[in-house]
Amino acid sequence: MRRYFGRKVLIYLLTFFIAVTIDWLIPRFMPGDPVLSMLGRVGTAHPDTVNAMREYFTRVFGLDVPFWQQYLNFWASLLRGDLGVSVYRFPQSVVDVIMNAVPYDIALLVPSILLSWIAGNKFGAYAARRKWLDNTVLPLGYTLTATPYMWLAILLAWGLGIKLDLFPIAGAYAFDMAPHWSWRFISSVLHHWFLPFASLFLVNLGGWAIGMRNVIIYELEADYSHYLEALGAPQKLVRKYAYRNALLPQITGLALQLGVIVAGALVTEVVFSYPGIGFQLLAAIQNQDYFLIQGCFLFIISGVLLANFIIDIAYVIVDPRTRRGMTGETA
Amino acid sequence: MSLHVENLKVYYQTLSGDVRALDGATFDIADGEIMGLAGESGCGKTTLAHSLIRLTPPLKFIGGRVELDGEELPIADMEKMDDFRFRKISIVPQYAMNALNPTRKIGKMTAELLASKGAKMKDVEPELRRRLDLVGLTQDVLDMYPIELSGGMKQRMVMVLSTLLDPSLLMADEITSALDVSTQKAVAEMLVEFRDRQFVKSMIIITHDISILYQVADTIMIMYAGQLAEKASKETIIESPRHPYTKMLISSLPQVGVQVNDTRLKGIPGTPPQLLEPPKGCRFRARCPLAFDKCLEVPPFVEVDPGHMVACWKEPGKNA
Amino acid sequence: MEKNKKKRNEFLYFAFRNHKLRIGLLIVVFFLVMAIIGPSFTENDPLSFIHRGAPLKPFQSEDFLFGTTVFGQDVYSQFVHGLRATFVVGAIGGGLATLIGVIVGFVGGYMGGKTDEGLNMGTNIVLVIPTLAVLLIISAYLEVRGILLESIFIGCTAWPWTARAVRAQTFSLRAREFVDLAKMTGMKSLKIIFKEIAPNMMSYLLLVFILQFGGATLNAATLDFIGLGPTEGISLGLMMNHAVAHSALLLDIWWWFIPPGFAITAIVGALYVTNVGLDEVFNPKLREM
Amino acid sequence: MLKLQGISKTYKVGTFGGKELHAVCDVDLEVGTGEVVSLIGESGSGKTTIGKMVLKLISITSGSAFFKDIDITTIEGRELKEYYRNVQGVFQDPFSSYNPIFKADRVFAMVKEEFYPDMKPEAWAEKVDQCLKDVGLNPPDVLGKFPHQLSGGQLQRFLIARALLLETEFLVADEIISMLDASRRIDVLNLLADLKKKGLSILFITHDLSLAYYISDQAVILYRGSIVEMGSTERVYFNPQHPYTKMLMATVPRLDQEWEDIEIAIREKQLPIGQGCVYFGRCPFATDQCSLERPQLEQIESNHQVACFSCKRGS
Predict the structure, then answer these.
(1) Given CB atoms, is D207 within the 8 Å cutoff of chain B?
(2) CA-to-CA separations, D76 to B261, C191, D49, D111, in angstroms, rounded
(3) Partner-chain contact D259 B184, CB within 8 Å
(4) What is the pLDDT of residues A197-219, one digit of tens each?
(5) I want to staple A141 with a disulfide (CB 3.0 to 4.6 A). Which of A60, A210, D116, D227 is the partner?
């Protein structure tokens, strides 16, 4: 059991290490001299930003310093939590920018992923029950998964937001408010939160429904289901067991889908200009703010890795086969 | 009279039409009788077993009547059969090794299964524990997961589970074929013990290995291409079979003590007919050395001696 | 011989009877035809500003069938050229991802042992990393981006799914005894892979390619939408980007942002449904469902 | 013809290959020309592993193997191909031995492509027809067909014909008839017997004792990777010495006599193989010597050896 986790931790650390290396490598293997091209592109006339930037760039990119030295500096500053200074939000450090974007991200991602996972599995299970149910849930599920995240976001914004004017379509809370603990503020936040949540929820829902439908059909064909039916067990019991066993591969499915869902959230935030990491990342890209880009990238990666690790542990706890398989002595 | 089957016809639906897998079977099983059901692959023995307990597509019920302890078995009706299944008629399936739900403790699963059938675990538990000792399984097997048991142990658990409500008829479908010689003997003898201890009233053991049936069965019924060929006590089937197919089948089985250089056994020429458009009359006609024009009609399954039924025109039965 | 012919038209018989396959293919082919011959119906360049004045609604005038954008660009021309770009990215990106996935899957699955363990670990690592984030970074740093480059990027980051699936299939085939028989006829490993194992998986590879094609289309649309798509030419994602950027929602120019999204959803959805149809045709067990 | 000396096979199991599984531990075996030696054992006894090692489909962990006095333990490439000209195998599942999407007689085409590339097509067709007739098949009925159009028996005989095409001298038959119907088995066994008369040596691997008795001259009883008893078939069957062989002979279902009711320990959990006798876990006559030392094969009568301490003491 311990060795199983040890191996898992090792793989995740290795992945994190590679991700950070990619993050560090990208600006370096781009053509041309990074410092000059960045300075030129930023083009802010403001003297002190230019000097601060030049001094900062030279220190970080220090072309005289050998390659691996730069790499170590990068790791050193990373571990100290200093991800450099944001260019387009100048005095703010990258970490601050990200820190006040993260709560929105969590508020958007966690509920939409979990609720869509639960609802999707329920839908998928129903689909396997009757032929006509299968012929409605399946096509609906496929259209939903096939819908680009941003298009559904646009449709909801345009339909519910503008046409019926039920929901605001921009920002995380009303512009005239500053964040404080009051009912009015919370209700405004929820009001703004609903459309991005709904769009993410619907697109993910389709994926889980289809996944569950295919897995549960496989479980209903399994030997233990046939045995229960041969002993005259009611369909309710057979379906209950098949559903529980079909949930397990859906847990690993959840872990593998995280990367795609995060990307979806990023685009949805752009449509609703919802101030999550995705929105910041895009703004950073549009303003060539390389340090913010690298910062956002690291946060997304570590978030996904952490979630994956948690889900892996949950899987081992939930699935007796892996838990007992390793410790139990099988003949 | 434990089981009475009359002219049972069950076909197997396929894309290119109905395979007439079981074409009119009429036989009886007395109380306390262990009947061995043998025949080569594709002879319909599994179709017969499955149609008695769980007749689902692609199997299609064509006709015939089945009575168990005087009560008619509605085998064509899935729902109505539910109250017969597990209580009156039960099965130890061929896939017994993985018939237990892998993610559920065995005890919990048994309790839920019993509850779903309206029986309570409390009143069955003492008997269940006694039977676990009988088959050599420890008590704590109930809170283990199937993955922690060996193949043989899982099979014995399924045997105990299937016979927990003392069904009147138990079907054992090829449960010895996947086992080694030593465990095979233990499992076969366990079946006999289940009958001796009245866990089950009568039993059908389905297998292609006739020598196992000779050891444990009371009577043996041979099937060929969806039709019953012969049924008799195990001694008569082995020593003095009357149906040409049974004779050739028994004589083609190598035995310890028989070597190729001294006695060269002979197989049965030709191949079994495909059952999409089966040949008219007796289906063994093409391969039978004694075939003559009368064989174009289907020979009735008649009693030539007390307890000895044969379907062959060459064997003049009492009423032929 | 008749039995073998029967097996082949049994497959065709099933292929055409399977309504999922029929509907799916119909939609995909419809958009494909539209992408090929569509542009020939209009000489307007998708990006040039032709029409003056308020944006035209669809079918309001015959030379702007789908109406115009807020700048007076021909929406129809943008739509059909965008379709073409989408199919190109789907084909190249999807094809590349399938290719890499198949090679990694085959070699890992057949060789086993250390090579397999290494490749498998690599696959899992690339699988866990959110590929879109990587694509984002790469595209951000590149000045000039062509559609080919975008397809290659997408292809290089979408292969883990295929690799895992092909590896599992190769494992099951490798255990089959006809592989041992081939070894005993003195055939070399590579020859065994391509002559014995690969032909068995043709149907499976087709299924995988269809999924990759759909995935690549979605990824490309997402990249274009956030402005990191090809820097010249038009694509469906770019159309939506322009629409949102120039508040087409508020101005209620729905014909600017609805058709591109609808086309992508229809194509990718149809591909998935075709995949399910083909899967049912290939293995009969799913047929009864 | 074939000599195995101290052959062993160890698999690495567990996540990091921590634990070792000894499938076969130093087996000595010899098959003479035109001799049929049957390798008898239950599942997990390592009989198939030995078969695969002889066919060089899996590597030999330790020990050496000689074919006509050439050391084949580590041959590869050209010599391996030459080796396959003389040694061939037929497997258990006829339907899994054929690539389902090609015609069945493609196995012959593969043989021609690899071993007789420059042979003229008519001469090759003639050779194929002859081999098919030798195995009792009528060429027009079986050529040009897909595997699913042929029966199990025909497919197995196809593979034997393939071996004849290569003029093989040594055949490894691994459970080749366990998937066939009772009445089809005997034809294949008789065919093997005829080929034996023509000088073919066969290593007949099976778990079915009556089949082995019918066809083999020598019988080798295998248990969890080691030989417990070997010798001429009559002696091993009718004068079994090792407790395991005695138990096997008592439990094999016969058509002429019922089971004696000797009690058999049901094989519960596999005890790991210690350095003692492999049968220690289930042996009714086990002494502590059996648990410490592994008994070696010793001659107890001509052409009959046993690996058991208690047997020598005439218990």
Answers:
(1) yes
(2) 39, 16, 19, 18
(3) no
(4) 999 999 999 889 988 988 898 89
(5) A210
ipTM: 0.85
Residue with tokens 């009445």: D183
B27 forms beta bridges with B5
The residues, any chain, with a CB within 8 Å of residue C18's CB and separated by 6 or more, are C277, C280, C281
Q: What's B279's DSSP letter?
A: P
A270 interfacial to chain C (CB closer than 8 Å): yes
Residues of D with Cβ-Cβ distance to B255 under 8 angstroms = 210, 213, 254-256
Mean pLDDT of C65-70: 79
* Among candidates A224, A232, A331 on the partner chain, residue whose Cβ is nearest the Cβ of B86: A232
Q: Show Cβ contacts of residue D21 under 8 Å, excluding neighbours closer than 6 positions.
A: D10, D11, D12, D13
Of C129, C254, C271, the CB nearest to A15: C129
Encode pLDDT of C74-133 as tens digits.
888 888 888 888 899 999 999 999 999 998 988 888 887 788 888 888 888 888 777 777
Which residues of chain B are within 8 Å of residue A326 when distances are taken between CB atoms? none
DSSP designation for B299: P
Cβ-contact B249, D183 below 8 angstroms: yes
Name every chain C residue with its beta carbon within 8 A of the beta carbon of D146: 3-4, 7
Q: Which residues pair with A86 in a beta bridge?
A: none
SS (H, E, C) chain A: CHHHHHHHHHHHHHHHHHHHHHHHHHHHCCCCCHHHHHHHHHCCCCHHHHHHHHHHHHHHHCCCCCHHHHHHHHHHHHHCCCCCECCCCCCCEHHHHHHCCHHHHHHHHHHHHHHHHHHHHHHHHHHCCCHHHHHHHHHHHHHHHHCCHHHHHHHHHHHHHHHCCCCCCCCCCCCCCCCCCCHHHHHHHHHHHHHHHHHHHHHHHHHHHHHHHHHHHHHHCCHHHHHHHHCCCCHHHHHHHHHHHHHHHHHHHHHHHHHHHHHHHHHHHHHHCCCCHHHHHHHHHHCCCHHHHHHHHHHHHHHHHHHHHHHHHHHHHHCHHHHHHHHCCCC
Peptide bond into B58 cis (omega under 30): yes
B99 touches chain A (CB under 8 A): yes
C-beta of residue A98 within 8 angstroms of C-beta of residue A296: yes
Three-state DSSP class for B225? Answer: coil
- CB D19 within 8 Å of CB D77: no
- CA atoms in the 13 A half-sphere facing the CB of B295: 17
B88 three-state secondary structure: coil
- Cα–Cα dist C213/C220, whole Å: 11
- The full set of domains in chain D, from first to last, is 2-237 (3.40.50.300), 239-315 (no CATH)
**Cβ pair A305, C125 in contact under 8 A:** no
Residue A139 amino acid letter: P
CB contact under 8 A, C125 and A14: yes
Q: Is the pLDDT of residue B316 over 90?
A: no
Judged by a CB distance cut-off of 8 A, whether residue D15 touches chain A is yes
C50 φ, ψ (degrees, to nearest 5)? -100, -55
Predicted TM-score of the model (pTM): 0.84
> Are A7 and D15 in contact (CB < 8 Å)?
yes
Tell me if B85 and A230 make a contact (CB, 8 A cut-off): yes
b (16+ CB within 10 A) / e for D173-192: bbbbbebbbbbbbbbbbbbb
SS3 call for D64:
strand
User: Where would I find the H helices in chain D?
Assistant: 47-54, 77-86, 106-115, 121-134, 139-142, 152-165, 182-197, 209-215, 233-238, 243-251, 288-292, 309-312
Give the count of beta carbons closer than 10 Å to the beta carbon of residue B94: 18
Q: Cβ(B138)–Cβ(B129) under 8 Å?
A: no
Encoded tokens for C265: 């959803």
Q: What is the CB-side half-sphere exposure of residue B243 using CA atoms within 13 A?
A: 33
